[in-house]
Predict the structure.
Amino acid sequence: MAAKLILSMDGLVLKEIPLTKERTTIGRKPHNDIQIDNLAISGEHSVIVTILNDSFLEDLNSTNGTYVNGQPIKKHFLQNSDVIELGKYKLKYLNETPSQTTAADFEKTMVLRPDLMKKTAEQTAAKAVSPTDTQVGMKAIDTHTNVAPPPQAAAPAAAPAAAQVSGAIQILTGANAGKELELTKNLTTLGKPGVQVAVITRRPHGYFITHVEGANFPVVNGATLDAHPRELKDHDVIELAGVKMEFFVKG
């Protein structure tokens, strides 16, 4: 069951909007997916990025701001029953499908702490992978992801994924040139929060890169991406947040 938004004003439900697109824009101008014709709403007010079962809300530097459950937000991981407030209008987020991510995981991915970023390769090399996720950060490009538990620790339901291709990213430029980052999670966030962020999603039929945050979109093989997800092919070169990296399929 797809996630949806319930638009209301002063307690009166106006419409129900299913989140079927990867990017759903909200604003006063007619080209938005959700148009709210009110002067309190900016022309392009905010956007919801939906990847797999997860949705992320981002304020697009609106004049009056975007609020969730009464709190002003710049970027927010939406959870079932969250209420987005835009002026007098409210959008209730409903998603009964279990999420692949938790709000805490999302915050750890986006807000990088120096103490986490220092614990990189030696942390994973020094100890066997434990059943709990190990945090990995790449200092030069502010990259942070979680390494999935080993197959024997995974839930039985995850077994079919074993036949999936396994992808990885190799850093080509910067202080971390030559390092590899295995894409073992369903969602891997790359980039610099507040500057440029993209998400690589692992799906049954391959890996896809989607722009999430920032004025500039990622570049793949010299071509700038648009708002839609792009499937990654073996040896694609990605430019993100000033760093070049190569996607490749592991044998």
